[in-house]
């Protein structure tokens, strides 16, 4: 089955990419953008920077894990059937050593640095690329190379206590087991999971918690440390638990997930509160301005939620995946697919600039076309490429639609077309195209914000004839019944914008509220100096309203969106090489991109909102009379009085930063 | 003159350590603790860890800047006349190379890494130690070594464009110029200051702003980057400006200081908002929980404010120095002087633990007896040793008392005794012991919170007879007049505790208030699980009241205060060596300290406060019914209702963390 995750058991069964075909719409457009722009963008940059040349024995360029970016791109190409796959795969395969080892950084000097070397991490991504190829188009020299590589890992590591500082190989090995049935891969993955936290790695400045080696996986109360590593490890742990029937391990990860979502996750679904160690913080340490919320951690969170959904069938995992997909994964790429956020803060005070002088890796006020640590663009490429895998699942009795988006879903004789402008519109129509003569159900996940719609006077759910849906958990189930082609299920989800308030223990956003509409988190954005967001106080007693007319259309993407975009042609070859290891910043160079504009596809009727607000100037800063006001931002007086009623425009968070440098905030002060 | 800073011009003239003699009291006790405990504690640890052995050619231990800790300790010993100075100095001098170069890390491999090598930084601390010795007890083999070292620096660096990644040598060279009159030292310092930001150093991951090389010093709008480096560079810039008459440079630093105090400084005076790069953040980015507020940055801020006070006479510099001394510098050491905070957050959610496994360098929830990067303990040692230098200044017409503390001040025939229990009491008495037969004034700085006391009905200021003080700026000036021994000036500063509120642009503490009393910032502290601070909401409409009776005495230091203390004897020799460069964490080991308890001196009548509060439980975390509450800390409902009125005890911030692991917060939610 053409799907990145195909468990041998679980409450729900995934559907292959051939069974779910995205049509133009929010996610279909992004997959098209991936095929048309993002994959090529990544290929150009890695070619130019020498990361592909590494496999040809050219002088080594890039960070120690640069190989993994090539593998993630191969995986993206596999899921999309990209014609460039063969040539790139051949380059990779040619670099493999006779015993199966393949790493352009550590060849000849293997396995000396488990803390930072990323060798097994790279091997994991290689394996995933091979699995993707196998499941989409069958055997290939790359898939044979992957088996050799995996066998080398098993021979070397089956005994002993070593693990990789960056988890990843665990879930890859389980998937290879699922594909081949060779139990050594599962056993190797199980041992890697179990070895952690005994401890298995050396102490480092950031502490062993950084790479989840401070406590055994099944004893941890929460996810912690480096957020991407935590997510990838948890994915591997779920995969091992499902395949070995280890219910205790599965329950442990579920409990960690609950703790993390309740106390360590931003409104956008973003995970990671500290730039230091790219890590989770303490419970309720959720700063909007210094949120790290790395794109890859969001992708990892979606991967994990999907695995937990398949294993348990609980809709809350799909709820969180939806939140993270719309408000973090979709936020990372610019609308033109040529620049990316690495960190995804919820508040930016200073309009972003991207220069080599001042931008550390996670400069988060502007998207950058590439990074020295460029895990996010290629991770987005493979995620968008495999998006259909997340949309729906099956059981013997029917199909479950978890994410309403324009598509066709076909499984076991039942084919339906989903028609919707979601997330802009709440109308979701499921039209039966083909049906078997045996009963089936069609279920639709009801997001938590739509739960009230089931009450009298709420939204409308119509089945054909007098068919009434049944609530099962958080899903609306139509059927089971024998369907007739042409029958239609229609749902109208309530899309009124709503104010959201934080738990009082989230200190960093006390006295603030945020706006959501459907699955989308909104934000105020201030291109240029139009509005000084630092002075805005919103009136959260009045509901946000939809913005209409000419003023709304101004906010669609203009040429400004390209102000921060560059193509690989603009930069000199070999820029940001291994010779300059200290520089991890976004890479820039040359004139503005003036190539063809990928326009229109993502102009899909974005809804903007308006709220009532007022401006409140700050306290004076340069006191004329020092008596009573010493210039510090603290004093005995209360806040300054409000002035000047204004209307504050809100845009979907995932669309911010596409019009040039701006300030931005999701959490808006209410007083 | 026995003072670390002796400018050749300026509005105010410093007084030597012989002219200001501290008596028992808040600061006098701390200087005694330094002499009795802290200096010896530092000596023991550096001896045990091999940092002193480095000078004897033993296998190199410690970080690349370990030499500087030995120099700072020598400086502390010089200011206190410590008998161990000669032996330690001889060890250092013996390691000097014939041309004057002296560095145990880079000997034979000089000046290869200006970004991270810290060679000139170490040279600066060596020079400062030599200046301290010269000014307190005259020439010494160390002072000769210092001249050789400084001359070697001048020969090597007078031409060219190189600077040290960590500023420090600039102010040291100016002070050596002030001592010797040799203009090459001033010129060398001037060039080091001017070279920055052209740029002079290589780009690094954190960006050149990290070491203030992103913009020339006189063009920077604010302090930024690594906070300690920023403060040390600014000190050097002021010193150069004063000695060269560069009013533009002085004005630039003054403007940077104003900007930084208004927008980038915590309530405690702490500077640095980001653990990443140990740096300042954006304007108004002042998180209480992730405040870095390094002890050394606070010391640097006091050093800078003192220089600006001497140059300009503006009391606001002394105001900020006072705030920082009482609420940051005094907070770092435990009451027993055997453990130290490196970072000084204003909010700790999780009771601290100090274990080698999980504590990065700046683990800030507990004090540690030593660190691999152990700049703070030795910096405290030299600062406490030279405390008298900050208390008062002179002009030809009289003396100015900037920091009321028990002491005697003698200058130019006028000797006074200051009697006060400040900061616990607002009573300050200045008794004339000796007086010349020419007119003199005595002035007393009026802190901003006491300014209202000058209004009718405010506090009392009495001079002898009918002498009425005159307000000059923020100072009360008594005289000029001919004084008679036995005459007394008495002031009563208003010590009512007060609520302080943040500027609304300080997002991280919106909806909170803090309590101050006199110069002290207070905090709520929760040893054990006595009070769950995460649930507390205070009533800031009622003034805080002083805590009395038995309950108050419970909070004085008990044996618990030693729970986190260790002596150097407890740890194995060579622990935390250069062989383990990745580990920067606090060093621990062995059983609890059971040596003699330095008790009593710091039990100086600390005043505790009480405020009215209520408990507010958080939202439920594990929803039974997922509908409408999805377990996330965000929702459409408002805050939970308040429950259970309580009385919340507040303690001076500088005393928190002396009773074992605890949660703590300075900023208290008001609703």
Produce the secondary structure layout.
2 copies of one chain form a homodimer.
Chain A: E1 13-14, E2 20-22, H1 26-49, H2 66-80, H3 85-93, H4 119-137, H5 141-157, H6 169-180, H7 183-195, H8 227-244, H9 247-263, H10 295-312, H11 315-329, E3 347-348, E4 370-371, H12 375-385, H13 388-391, E5 392-395, E6 398-401, E7 407-411, E8 414-420, E9 427-434, E10 440-445, E11 461-462, E12 470-472, E13 475-481, E14 488-492, E15 498-502, E16 512-517, E17 520-527, E18 536-538, E19 545-546, H14 550-553, E20 586-587, E21 609-615, E22 634-635, E23 643-652, E24 662-665, E25 668-669
Parallel strand pairs in A: 6-10
Antiparallel strand pairs in A: 1-5, 2-7, 3-24, 4-20, 5-6, 7-8, 8-9, 9-14, 10-13, 11-14, 12-13, 15-16, 16-17, 16-25, 17-23, 17-24, 18-21, 19-21, 21-23
Give an account of the 3D structure.
The structure is a homodimer of 671-residue chains. The longest helix of chain A is centred in the first third of the chain and has 24 residues, at 26-49. In chain A, helix 6 packs parallel to helix 8. Chain A has helices spanning 26-49, 66-80, 85-93, 119-137, 141-157, 169-180, 183-195, 227-244, 247-263, 295-312, 315-329, 375-385, 388-391, 550-553; strands at residues 13-14, 20-22, 347-348, 370-371, 392-395, 398-401, 407-411, 414-420, 427-434, 440-445, 461-462, 470-472, 475-481, 488-492, 498-502, 512-517, 520-527, 536-538, 545-546, 586-587, 609-615, 634-635, 643-652, 662-665, 668-669. Chain A is globular and about 70 Å long. Chain A has 671 residues and is an alpha+beta fold. In chain A, the strands form 4 sheets. In chain A, strands 3, 15, 16, 17, 18, 19, 21, 23, 24 and 25 form a 10-stranded antiparallel β-sheet that branches. A 6-stranded mixed β-sheet of chain A has the order 1-5-6-10-13-12. Chain A has 14 helices and 25 strands. Chain A is 29% helix and 17% strand. In chain A, strand 5 (392-395) and strand 6 (398-401) form a beta hairpin. At the A-B interface, helix 9, helix 11, strand 15 and strand 22 of A face helix 9, helix 11, strand 15 and strand 22 of B. Strand 22 of chain A pairs antiparallel with strand 15 (498-502) of chain B, so a sheet runs across the interface.
């Amino acid at each position: 089955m053409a799907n990145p995750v195909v468990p041998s058991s679980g409450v729900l069964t995934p559907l292959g990419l051939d069974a779910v075909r995205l049509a133009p719409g929010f996610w279909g457009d992004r997959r098209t953008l991936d095929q048309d722009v993002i994959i090529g963008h990544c290929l150009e940059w890695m070619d130019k920077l020498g990361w592909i040349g590494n496999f040809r024995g050219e002088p080594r360029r890039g960070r120690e894990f640069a190989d993994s970016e090539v593998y993630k791109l191969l995986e993206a190409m596999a899921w999309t059937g990209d014609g460039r796959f063969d040539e790139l795969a051949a380059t990779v395969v040619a670099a493999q050593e006779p015993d199966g080892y393949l790493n352009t950084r550590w060849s000849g000097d293997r396995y000396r640095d488990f803390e930072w070397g990323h060798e097994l991490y790279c091997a994991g991504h290689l394996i995933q690329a091979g699995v993707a190829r196998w499941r989409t188009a069958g055997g290939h020299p790359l898939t044979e190379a992957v088996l050799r590589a995996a066998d080398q890992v098993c021979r070397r590591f089956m005994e002993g206590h070593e693990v990789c500082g960056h988890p990843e190989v665990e879930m890859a090995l389980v998937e290879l087991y699922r594909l081949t049935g060779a139990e050594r891969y599962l056993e190797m993955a199980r041992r890697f999971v179990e070895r952690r936290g005994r401890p298995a790695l050396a102490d480092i400045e950031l502490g062993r918690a950084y790479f989840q080696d401070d406590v055994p996986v099944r004893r941890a109360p929460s996810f912690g440390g480096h957020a991407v590593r935590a997510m990838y490890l948890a994915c591997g742990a779920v995969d091992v638990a499902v395949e070995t029937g280890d219910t205790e391990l599965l329950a442990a990860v579920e409990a960690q997930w609950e703790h993390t979502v309740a106390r360590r996750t931003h409104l956008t679904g973003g995970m990671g509160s500290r730039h230091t160690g790219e890590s989770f913080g303490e419970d309720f340490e959720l700063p909007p301005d210094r949120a790290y919320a790395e794109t890859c951690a969001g992708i990892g969170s979606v991967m994990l939620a999907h695995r937990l959904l398949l294993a348990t069938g609980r809709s809350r995992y799909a709820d969180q995946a939806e939140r993270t997909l719309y408000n973090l994964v979709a936020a990372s790429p610019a609308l033109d697919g040529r620049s990316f956020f690495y960190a995804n803060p919820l508040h930016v005070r200073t309009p972003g600039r991207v220069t080599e002088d001042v931008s550390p890796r996670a400069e988060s006020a502007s998207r950058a076309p590439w990074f020295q640590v460029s895990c996010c663009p290629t991770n987005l490429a493979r995620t968008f490429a495999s998006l259909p895998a997340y949309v729906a699942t099956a059981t013997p009795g029917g199909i479950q639609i978890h994410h309403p988006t324009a598509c066709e879903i076909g499984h076991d004789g039942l084919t339906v077309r989903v028609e919707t402008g979601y997330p802009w519109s709440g109308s979701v129509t499921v039209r039966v195209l083909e049906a078997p003569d045996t009963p089936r159900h069609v279920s639709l996940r009801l997001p938590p914000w739509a739960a009230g719609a089931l009450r009298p006077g709420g939204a409308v759910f119509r089945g054909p004839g007098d068919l009434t849906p049944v609530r099962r958990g958080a899903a609306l189930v139509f059927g089971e019944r024998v369907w007739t082609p042409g029958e239609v299920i229609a749902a109208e989800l309530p899309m009124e914008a709503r104010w959201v308030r934080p738990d009082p223990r989230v200190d960093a956003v006390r006295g603030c509220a945020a706006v959501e509409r459907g699955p989308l988190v909104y934000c105020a954005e201030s291109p240029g100096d139009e509005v000084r967001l630092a002075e805005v106080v919103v009136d959260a007693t009045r509901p946000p309203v939809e913005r209409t007319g000419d003023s709304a259309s101004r906010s669609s993407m203009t040429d400004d969106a390209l102000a921060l975009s560059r193509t690989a042609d603009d930069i000199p070859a070999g820029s940001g090489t291994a010779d300059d290891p200290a520089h991890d910043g976004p890479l820039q160079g040359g004139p503005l991109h003036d190539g063809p504009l990928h326009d229109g596809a993502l102009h899909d009727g974005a809804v903007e909102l308006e709220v009532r607000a007022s401006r409140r100037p700050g306290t004076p800063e340069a006191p004329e009379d020092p008596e009573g006001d010493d210039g510090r931002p603290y004093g005995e007086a209360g806040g300054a009085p409000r002035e000047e009623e204004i209307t504050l425009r809100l845009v979907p968070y995932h669309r911010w930063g596409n019009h040039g440098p701006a300030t931005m905030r999701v959490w808006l002060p209410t007083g």
